[in-house]
Amino acid sequence: MKLLPEPTSSLLLLLLLVELSVSSMSQSSLRTSHKDGLRKLSNQMHRLRNLVSSRHTDVHYEHNLTSLPTLNFRPHDLAAVQENSTLFQLSSGLHSFKLHFDWLLYWQNQSGLLSFETKKITDIIESIRILIQNQVPDLPSQNATLSLPAPTSTWDVFKTSDIVHSRLQRFCGWYLRALHVLIQSTRRRRQLSPQSKDAHNKGGSGNTVVNYSS
User: Fold this and answer.
1) Assessment of whether the complete model's pTM goes beyond 0.70
2) Distance between CA atoms of 151 and 111, rounded to whole angstroms?
3) What is the rounded CA–CA span in Å between residue 180 and residue 182?
4) 121 touches 51 (CB < 8 A)
5) Biggest alpha carbon distance in the chain?
6) Domain 40-54+80-190, CATH among 1.10.8, 1.20.1250, 2.60.40, 1.10.260
7) How far apart are CA 164 and CA 158, in angstroms?
8) What is the mean pLDDT of the segment spanning 26-37?
9) Is residue 57 over pLDDT 60?
């Protein structure tokens, strides 16, 4: 059996160690980037909810807007949220809301009720959906149409606007809690990873300080 010269063997070992180190750093960087993406999503969802909440949305109108996203979630469902399915449902629901706000924007213009707030909401929704696409690039495309009858009066436009705002506020509340669960889950996985444990041990010896703050 022919053995490699000692310098060659040492060089191969060094190259292997470098490759493993780069791979480890890349995985750590991906986890950090992924968590940062979820945080950005959460921040934008907070921004959206605050904008929607600036309007009184505790409404009890009779309506038949069956095209709005349904909210059948229960508190214990948060214990079982999965990232891909949660982000898909979030994207799908926001797409539906954007179509409703586009409809409102059109009829507000027609009725002389132009609202810059409505346009701002649609812009934030679109920015959130772009962030989701960055997190889950293979999300399926959404239906781009909405079939709603034309309003019969200015009051009809105003009432529909209140209903859509109210549903979106509740929608944001649920998905903000779901995103918080996903962020905490990502943080725990990072803390339990071998790379994080090694870094934590080094930090205890005074060589490296590791900050796990969220």
Assistant:
1) yes
2) 10
3) 5
4) yes
5) 91
6) 1.20.1250
7) 10
8) 59
9) no
Distance CA 75, CA 176 (A): 13
Work out whether the CA dihedral 13, 14, 19, 21 comes out positive or negative.
positive
- Per-domain residue ranges of the chain: 40-54+80-190
Residue 46 · residue 131 · CB < 8 Å: no
Q: Give per-residue pLDDT as tens, 123-167.
A: 999 999 999 999 888 887 777 788 888 999 888 888 899 899 999
Q: Where are the alpha helices (DSSP H) in 60-153?
A: 83-110, 116-135
- Which residue type is seen at 111? S
pLDDT at 148: 87
Q: With H, G, I as helix, E, B as strand and everything else as coil, classify residue 153.
A: coil
